[in-house]
Write a structure and sequence with these properties.
The complex is a heterodimer of chains A (222) and B (287).
Chain A: E1 2-6, E2 11-16, H1 22-37, E3 43-48, E4 52-57, H2 64-72, E5 86-92, H3 101-108, H4 112-120, E6 124-129, E7 136-139, E8 154-157, E9 161-165, E10 168-171, E11 176-178, E12 181-185, E13 204-210, H5 212-221
Parallel strand pairs in A: 5-13
Antiparallel strand pairs in A: 1-2, 2-4, 3-4, 6-7, 6-13, 8-11, 9-10, 9-12
Chain B: E1 2-7, E2 13-15, H1 35-44, E3 53-57, E4 62-65, E5 69-82, E6 85-86, E7 93-95, E8 100-116, E9 119-120, E10 150-154, E11 174-181, H2 190-198, E12 201-207, E13 211-215, E14 226-231, E15 236-239, E16 245-248, E17 255-264, H3 266-273, E18 280-285
Parallel strand pairs in B: 11-18
Antiparallel strand pairs in B: 1-4, 1-10, 2-3, 3-8, 4-8, 5-6, 5-7, 5-8, 9-10, 11-17, 12-13, 12-18, 13-16, 14-17, 15-16, 15-17
The chains are: A alpha+beta (222), B mainly beta (287).
Chain lengths: 222, 287
Amino acid sequence: MMEVKRFGEKSLIIQFENIISIPVHQQVKNYYKYLLQSSMEGIKSISPAYNSITLIYDPFVTSFDKLKLEIENIEIDGDKELEQKVIEIPVCYATSLGLDIEEVAQSKNISIDEIIHLHTAPHYTVYMLGFSPGFMYLGGLDPQLFTPRKKTPRLQIPAGAVGLADQQTGIYPSATPGGWQIIGQTPVPIFQVNEKPLVRMGDQIKFKSIDLDTFHQLKNTK
Amino acid sequence: MSFEVIKGGLMTTIQDGGRYGVQDQGIPVSGFMDESSAQIANSLVGNSPNSALLECCQVGCTIKAHTEFSVAFYGAHMELKLNNHEVPQGKILTLTTDDILSIGFATKGMYGYLAIAGQLNLPKIYNSYSTYLPAKFGGYYGKKLETGDVVHILKPNILSNSFSVIKPQNFPQHVVLEALPGPEWNELPKESQELLLSTTYTISKDINRIGYRLEGESIPLGNKKEIISSGMIKGTMQITSAGIPIIMMADAPTSGGYLRALNLTERACDQLAQMQVGNKVEVRMKR
């Protein structure tokens, strides 16, 4: 299921089925990769999300009607298995960095080690990047770690902080205010201006637990 | 070949036509708040319309020339003085070494554009000169211009004084903004659609390069209060779960989770950018 809809005067949305699911994600990813490699003229920007892709185009080069026709006639070769990149991200869960990990452990009546185990076990799917530069929307959090946001957001969360919020987990790419429960921090820069992105939509993320010494070593070599 | 910033003003940043092609990394487009005014300023000095220039917000900057070059200012009504003598906007002005150009407080409008004939010598970030302050990159090393900053000009141009003058725009305090239906327009109850299109909204204090929050009737939502995070562009009007309309502007995040009721036309985005706190707007569907 796919529909091409107008979105303002020089944008369009490719809308897929209205759910968050792996099959829909795969479909978005296939169209995204196709569009990245395509020779369609006049496309200025492609941003994939959970179940949609937003395109910004140059109205002097192409038009909504032309793009709609082109997109509706895209044939995705379903048999072509796309390479699945797995990116390992080291995270230190020490209480000095995981500011809320003790509180989360208490609220769930499980040990800190158990939280670390539950958080490092899955391969998380990068559904999309958005909200702020380098911010990943990850899917695959263990339901045992579903945690409400903090009632009062922190005014400053350090770059690299790893947090939980409702059914999501994620990393703050840059220092910002925020309401997530912070359980750790990565020494790896998640977003660096003008560098090749660390992660793209469709990649997989695996968190790896590191101790405080390793955290500082890695932090200093970056 | 440069100029020096004597006073930075409230928020003077370098902007150009925008940063495209990196929205899949969550990077906003940025660029001019009022495109047409910026493009007119650029055209006056012979630059291509989307060239990098100085965007002044509400209180302009003061610069001192370290070489000879031509400039033109266009947009908000800001008092323009060359060596303390009033000069008009919408006209080529040529500065010589040690000349001081000051751009004052906006009596009408919000954003004024100072285009410099030639090219600013700054690093391009993802193929654009636009400043994105929240992540501190682009433009003048990721920051707004401040006292003591020196901006270099690659190939400054000296233009002969042309007779052409572009008259300043009129900035009414009550504007009807034209819009197109957004992806979730039909998710709004009929009465809410009518309410949104019949309410006169006030520009709140909560306005910046990211978005403009409107004050007035809150819009009751139907069953659907949020969406699965999806794309946003400049001009997208979101309705928050509390029913408040927010219109995304140049630094809009690439995605959001509120209902996207409308998208303003480009012309309406330019008009909105120039509205001051307390001004009134209405929204109409473009025919």
